[in-house]
Specification:
With about 210 residues, the protein is an all-alpha fold. The longest helix has 25 residues.
Length: about 210
């Protein structure tokens, strides 16, 4: 299951880097689509998290234990960093140099925190409800719902925060030069708070589905 999490996270972060690095206006669709297909491919083996914030939400929701969650986090972060390193090798260096690193300060820092918090919460909350709920067993729409949550978030707030919604993506983006290391804490704090809040919200709204 750790290998599945590594594979899915690798392709997610790799797609973020290459689609964004190419300057494609359809980058959000590519990112949401690769997440969707990887969730469909891996859910039966690992749950298809591919995101440390989602794993935290599932931990709070009590569908994974602490030791397994730690293994997921290691696999996800390692795969994200590897994907970022590969992107740096395959994307035209001129494009990388031309792309401005997203820096945050003052109001933009607060705005990025808020939108990352909101859409990471939305993503984690959707995952819990469509992929772990007893009310939606063996449904066929979970991958679409998860992928299109990311598409919606990337289109809606990508210009504000970069649209990471995922600590593995945030770390990978910093390695690729997309995010400034000095403000990486904004992403991590917002995403982890959102993951924990989504898990707590699911339990509060579904007391019989713990």
């Amino acid at each position: 299951m750790y290998a599945v999490e590594a594979i899915g996270t690798f392709f997610l972060v790799f797609t973020v880097g290459t689609a964004t690095g190419s300057g494609s206006p359809f980058a959000p669709l590519a990112i949401g689509a690769v997440l969707m297909v990887m969730v469909y491919a891996g859910r039966h083996l690992s749950g298809g998290h591919f995101n440390p914030a989602v794993t935290l939400a599932v931990l709070v929701r009590r569908r994974i234990g602490p030791s397994a969650a730690a293994g997921y986090w290691i696999a996800q972060l390692a795969a994200g960093l590897l994907a970022a390193a590969v992107v740096r090798e395959v994307v035209d260096p001129a494009r990388v140099a031309a792309a401005a690193t997203m820096t945050l300060s003052g109001r933009t820092e607060l705005a990025a925190f808020v939108v990352e918090l909101l859409f990471t919460f939305a993503l984690c909350f959707v995952v819990l409800n469509v992929a772990t709920s007893k009310s939606n067993p063996n449904n066929s729409f979970y991958g679409l719902a998860i992928g299109f949550t990311v598409v919606a978030g990337a289109f809606a707030v990508g210009a504000i925060s970069g649209g990471a919604f995922n600590p593995a993506v945030a770390f990978g983006a910093a390695v690729m030069g997309m995010f400034a290391w000095s403000t990486l804490w904004v992403y991590l704090a917002a995403q982890l708070i959102a993951g924990a809040a989504a898990g707590a919200a699911f339990l509060a709204l579904n007391p019989d589905d713990a």
